[in-house]
Amino acid sequence: MASLAPEQMRDSQLLSAAVKLVRRSRGLSTRQVAAAMHMSLRTYQRFEAGATRVNFDHIHRFARATSSDPYSLVMSVMIGSSRYARNTADNMLSTVLVVGVQNLEKALGDRIAQLDTRALVSGVAALFDGFAAQVLDVDPAEEWLSKGQDELAARRPKPGR
Questions:
Q1: How far apart are CA 41 and CA 30, in angstroms?
Q2: Judgement on whether residues 83 and 122 belong to the same structural domain of the protein
Q3: Cα–Cα nearest to 50, from 85, 80, 15
Q4: 99 lies in a domain?
């Protein structure tokens, strides 16, 4: 499985890789997780190996057993990155996103259809750019100003010419 590029992996293979990464990062054995999920070891092994169809009940049970984010497991398949599930297991990024969407849907109901796609993209992009800047310790204003100064300097003639 490791020899396949993410874009060549099937959903079950991506989920399998994500589950293994989360389980191993928690320092748990397959036997421990199977017991915590209240299933036989063989059933768990088939789930972890991706030998069964994607099963949301198993995903939620696995997340409870490993104290991880079930929505990050699903999202890892959707974005083609098994590492995403491991990397967001503790901060619950995908659960936070799903709760936000749930709250928006509750607040707007059918009017959610009136949201403009451009405004959604702009808002979400700004949100995620802000998250990235926080982790990367980047000051967007400083970066913007520095880039602008470099562009201005590039357009001006060199002194003495």
A1: 7
A2: no
A3: 15
A4: no
Handedness of CA 30, 33, 38, 44 (dihedral sign): negative
pLDDT tens digits, 36-47: 999 999 999 999
C-alpha–C-alpha distance, residues 52 and 73, integer Å: 15
For residue range 48-106, list pLDDT tens digits in order: 999 988 899 999 999 999 999 999 999 999 999 999 999 999 999 999 999 999 999 99
Q: Are the beta carbons of 96 and 88 closer than 8 angstroms?
A: no
Examine the domain organization and report whether 24 and 76 are in the same domain. Answer: yes
Q: Are residues 137 and 61 in the same domain?
A: no
Question: Tell me, what amino acid is at 41?
Answer: L
Question: Cα–Cα distance between 37 and 78 in angstroms, integer?
Answer: 24
Task: Please report whether residue 62 resides in a domain.
Answer: yes
Evaluate whether residue 103 is within a structural domain.
no
Q: How far is CA 107 from the centre of its chain?
A: 25
- Those residues whose C-beta lies under 8 Å from the C-beta of residue 90, and which sit 6 or more positions away, are 68, 69
